[in-house]
User: Which sequence fits this backbone?
């Protein structure tokens, strides 16, 4: 008995000494020599983190110092319960603020772009992407009203007044099934409806919302399982269709925003993600087939004036062989440097690659889990105080 | 009676002569099938087995003060329980880091199947009518056993209580009522009676309701500190079992029917959210039924036969409804499984020191689901095992070869996986170097595989019919030592090296909402298991301390060149251990138990972001029996996680803090 009490006392002591869990600090690495930054001070990279792991993280790269800093959110916001949240799906800098759409945490995180400090959060269930026009933010969401058939649940676009974030009034405009990316051209907002939860009855439409009335004025039939939108300098909207992973492959469509009609279909441009700089549309595709059980990965640059593929490999030095699953793409608006992220197996840290405009690797660095979304910033991020 | 005893002796002679006295005692009670019980409950020392085995039974199990089998097996060395928290949370076991798909789970001698996803939720099996739980590494060292008993890398055997009706009594009744934290209420009834000279019957039923609500905290040093309540973890379940045990001629038989029905909530991962805003109302309904029968007979001097049969059907309904939780998407699926199984095993004595066995098993599985593009698979499996056992001059050897043939059909032509025909061997040796010393050196080699589950192969948008089986290879060397009488000390130490090849892992496809299964993983495991148990008397009390320790290095060798190559695989701690101090006097019984799980990582990248701190819990239970002439009343109080440690076993699934239970049993 005595021994038992000793043991109990010992273990009680042990129980009392369990170390408190620390906030994981950021880690900064010089990945390239610093350079004269120009108008773009740096970029934020949002790592999605695997669903259910609450591991969305934020990284920052500074052009002036050439330092890549991993995981900046937690240490700058120690009071925010459970850090950034679960599945970071989109990131944008607008005005002086940084917006992150956290899909499975069901809100948009709003931060000061200069300090990455939490300001507020906008509650929008199952939110996906965010765009801005004037004083409003527009957020796509899967969580539309549930009618008689719970399986036929439309999504919506939410409108939030960014000038009054303290008391955000949220309007919604119901669109198609599982709406994804949006673009704004003039006074019209275009949103791609995927219908990804309605397999095999995918949605095929892009909804057009008139911003003045905040009502859908057009529904354009495009192709199945739509995802990304990108608008070029002449008002043509590029739409990616993910295909059905079986017989229907991924491809790219073009909508003319003047007529709101599909004017072109680019079957040879499979498209998982794209970004525009000047008249060049940078596209990659990681297409999975449940028939062959293989991925086919491809890269391309499309000239938006001619709609011809300029090159089928914008990475020129063989680095693409190291990229297992390209998952994010961005092009520096001034220098034309290309950023590509690799999500690898989705459960280990990924990698970000920076390529010179002519496709040579300039630097690369380990990121958080599932590096996916890049937002350039003109304001330099202040060091942590 | 005598014939029974003979059968047992034949078996015992084969492998475990030293156990004869214990078995002989057992034999008087006429229940040969429960070898396991013999191992554990009535003091047959564990070292008699020539493979590593650990068992908990009888009083020790009763005293432990835990609800489910999953909670009890945590005290074995070499085991990791993956626990999603709460009474309703999924609990699966992983033995020696090879993965939970490689653990066979046997219920009264017949394997519990789950062709759909290949793992058995041990959290569903309450200890209410459980008599013994044992863990075997490799396989049981009996060669008269179904071929399926050879077909997994390790096995957990659950043995339910068999009627033991004392002379002059017609029946036993044990009516119990448990209640405690998480708004749990758990009435149960066990009723046993003698039908006639040769047949006894038992009926066991239990009902459980729990709201599953508990408070948990997350905190960071110099940062946030929050306390929330776990919701939607409610469970309501009923279990009914009916069993008959009998003897016929030179054999004995058992037949049982089992029914389980439950409704439960899925609390989901605890991630950042506006607290309380979303309800998380995902629900699951289960309905399981099986009937099984066993017959064992001895024919002549040299031949024994063991026949098993089973029919099972399982129904699962999952619903996620946006009408009750706006954040969720609508999912409403029903899955139906059926299984038919038959086995015949034969044992032949060639010489007194040499035996041979042949087992043939057949199994048929179906899976129906209301998923789009579903192919409705049917699986036909044939298992054949040939085994031999030799014993000479304190040296024992067992060798076996298992042949597995699997063929599948699907409703859609060409959607089925190719057929498999695979041979896998095992070899077990043991040696007692000194006649006078109870020291045994042992070792085994086993190579075996697990089939991809029907989900792995056919689940719409995830399944991959081109999957290959996932192989494990095990090498084990160890010793077992026992000393002392009547105060006893038993020590088992084993070192092992395991490989897992072609590991089936889930991989996302083009985005993280679409996954698939691939044969990608490669794991190498080196470990040491230590199990010590003692029993002695002191001051009128019977004391039985147990201790276990596990060291494991489980390295992921999937991707040479990756910066995470060689990292410790997720959720496997380097160090883990447990202590149980149990004791009883004439009317009192008490138990203290401690579990320690060392630091580990939640992903193969062993970096601070994935680090998980060690956790350790202390549990206490105290029980008093009040005996009257015709009946007895037992009152038990339990307190678990005394120091209210806040911990997770699985990332984002918080475990309960301090919790209590009171139990009253009336025994007639």
Assistant:
């Amino acid at each position: 008995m005595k021994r038992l009490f000793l043991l109990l006392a010992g273990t009680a002591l042990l129980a009392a000494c369990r170390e408190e869990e620390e906030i994981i600090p950021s880690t900064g690495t010089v990945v390239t020599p610093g350079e004269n930054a120009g108008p773009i001070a740096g970029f934020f990279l949002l790592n999605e983190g695997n669903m259910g792991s609450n591991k969305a993280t934020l990284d920052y790269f500074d052009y002036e110092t050439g330092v890549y800093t991993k995981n900046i959110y937690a240490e700058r916001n120690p009071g925010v319960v459970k850090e950034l949240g679960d599945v970071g799906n989109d990131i944008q800098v607008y005005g002086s603020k940084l917006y992150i759409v956290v899909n499975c945490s069901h809100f948009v995180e709003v931060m000061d772009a200069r300090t990455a400090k939490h300001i507020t959060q906008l509650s929008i269930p199952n939110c996906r992407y965010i765009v801005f026009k004037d004083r409003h933010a527009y957020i796509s969401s899967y969580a539309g009203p549930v009618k008689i058939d719970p399986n036929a649940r439309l999504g919506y676009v939410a409108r939030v007044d960014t000038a009054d974030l303290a008391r955000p009034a949220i309007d919604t405009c119901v669109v198609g099934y599982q709406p994804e990316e949006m673009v704004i051209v003039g006074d019209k907002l275009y949103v791609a409806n995927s219908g990804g939860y309605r397999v095999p009855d995918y949605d095929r439409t892009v909804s057009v919302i008139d911003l003045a009335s905040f009502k859908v004025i057009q529904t354009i039939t495009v192709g199945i399982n739509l995802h990304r939108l990108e608008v070029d300098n002449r008002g043509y909207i590029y739409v990616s269709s993910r295909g059905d992973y079986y017989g229907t492959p991924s491809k790219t469509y073009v909508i003319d925003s003047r007529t709101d009609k599909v004017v072109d279909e680019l079957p040879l441009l499979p498209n998982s993600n794209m970004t525009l700089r000047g008249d060049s549309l940078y596209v990659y595709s990681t297409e999975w087939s449940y028939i062959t059980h293989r991925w086919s990965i491809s890269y391309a640059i499309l000239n938006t004036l001619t709609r011809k593929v300029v090159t089928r490999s914008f990475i020129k030095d063989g680095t693409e062989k190291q990229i297992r699953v390209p998952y994010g793409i961005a092009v520096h608006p001034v220098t034309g440097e290309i950023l590509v992220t690799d999500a690898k197996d989705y459960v280990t840290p990924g990698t970000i690659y920076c390529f010179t405009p002519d496709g040579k690797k300039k630097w690369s660095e380990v990121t958080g889990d599932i590096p996916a979304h890049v937002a350039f910033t003109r304001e330099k991020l202040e060091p942590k105080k | 009676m005598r014939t029974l005893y003979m059968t047992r002796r034949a078996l015992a002679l084969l492998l475990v002569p030293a156990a004869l006295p214990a078995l002989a005692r057992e034999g008087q009670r006429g229940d040969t099938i429960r070898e396991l019980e013999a191992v554990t409950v009535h003091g047959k020392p564990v070292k008699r087995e020539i493979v590593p085995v650990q068992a908990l039974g009888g009083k020790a199990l009763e005293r432990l003060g835990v609800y489910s089998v999953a909670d009890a097996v945590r005290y074995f060395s070499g085991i990791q329980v993956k626990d999603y928290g709460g009474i309703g949370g999924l609990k699966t076991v992983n033995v020696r880091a090879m993965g939970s798909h490689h653990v066979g789970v046997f219920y009264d001698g017949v394997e519990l199947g789950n062709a759909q996803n290949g793992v058995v939720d041990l959290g569903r099996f309450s200890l209410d009518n459980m008599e013994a739980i044992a863990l075997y590494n490799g396989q049981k060292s009996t060669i008269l056993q179904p071929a399926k008993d050879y077909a997994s890398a390790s096995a957990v055997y659950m043995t339910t209580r068999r009627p033991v009706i004392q002379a002059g009594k017609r029946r036993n009744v044990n009516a119990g009522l448990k209640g405690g934290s998480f708004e749990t209420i758990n009435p149960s009834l066990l009723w046993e009676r003698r039908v006639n000279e040769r047949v006894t019957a038992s009926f066991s039923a239990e009902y459980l309701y729990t709201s599953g609500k508990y408070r948990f905290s997350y905190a960071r040093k110099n940062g946030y500190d929050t306390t929330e309540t776990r919701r939607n973890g409610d469970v309501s379940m009923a279990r009914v079992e009916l069993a008959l045990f009998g003897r016929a001629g030179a054999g004995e038989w058992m037949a049982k029917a089992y029914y389980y029905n439950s409704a439960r909530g899925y609390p989901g991962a605890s991630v950042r959210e506006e607290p309380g805003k979303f309800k998380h109302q995902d629900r699951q309904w289960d309905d399981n039924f099986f009937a099984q029968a066993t017959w064992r007979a001895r024919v002549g001097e040299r031949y024994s036969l063991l026949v098993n049969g089973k029919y099972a059907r399982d129904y699962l309904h999952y619903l996620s409804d946006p009408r009750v939780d706006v954040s969720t998407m609508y999912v409403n699926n029903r899955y139906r499984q059926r299984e038919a199984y038959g086995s015949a095993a034969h044992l032949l004595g060639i010489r007194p020191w040499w035996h041979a066995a042949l087992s043939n098993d057949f199994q048929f599985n179906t899976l129906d689901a209301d998923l789009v593009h579903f192919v409705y698979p049917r699986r036909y499996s044939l298992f054949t095992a040939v085994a031999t056992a030799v014993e000479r001059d304190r040296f024992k050897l067992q060798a076996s070869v298992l042949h597995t043939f699997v063929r599948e059909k699907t409703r859609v032509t060409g959607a089925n996986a190719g057929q498999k025909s695979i041979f896998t061997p095992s070899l077990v040796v043991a040696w007692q170097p000194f006649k006078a010393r109870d020291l045994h050196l042992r070792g085994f080699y086993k190579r075996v595989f697990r089939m991809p589950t029907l989900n792995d192969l056919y689940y719409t948008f995830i399944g991959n019919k081109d999957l290959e089986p996932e192989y494990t290879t095990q090498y084990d060397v160890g010793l077992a030592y026992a000393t002392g009488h009547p105060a006893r000390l038993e020590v088992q130490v084993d070192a092992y090296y395991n490989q897992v090849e072609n590991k089936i892992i889930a991989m996302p496809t083009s985005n993280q909402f679409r996954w698939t299964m691939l044969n990608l993983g490669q794991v190498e495991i080196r470990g040491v298991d230590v199990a010590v148990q003692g029993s002695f008397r002191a001051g009128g009390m019977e004391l039985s301390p147990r201790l276990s320790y596990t060291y494991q290095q489980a390295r992921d060798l999937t991707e040479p060149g990756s910066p995470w190559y060689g990292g410790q695989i997720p959720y496997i701690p380097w160090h883990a251990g447990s202590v149980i101090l149990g004791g009883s006097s004439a009317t009192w019984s008490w138990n203290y138990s401690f579990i320690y799980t060392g630091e580990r990582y939640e992903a193969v990248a062993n970096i601070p972001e994935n680090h998980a701190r060690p956790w350790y819990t202390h549990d206490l239970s105290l029980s008093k029996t009040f005996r009257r002439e015709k009946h007895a009343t037992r009152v038990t109080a339990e307190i678990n996680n005394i120091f209210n440690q806040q911990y997770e076993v699985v990332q984002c699934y918080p475990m309960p803090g301090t919790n209590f239970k009171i139990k009253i049993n009336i025994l007639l």
User: Anything to note?
Assistant: Residues 1-19+26-118+366-385 of chain A form one domain. The CA atoms of residues 316 and 358 of chain A lie 7 Å apart.
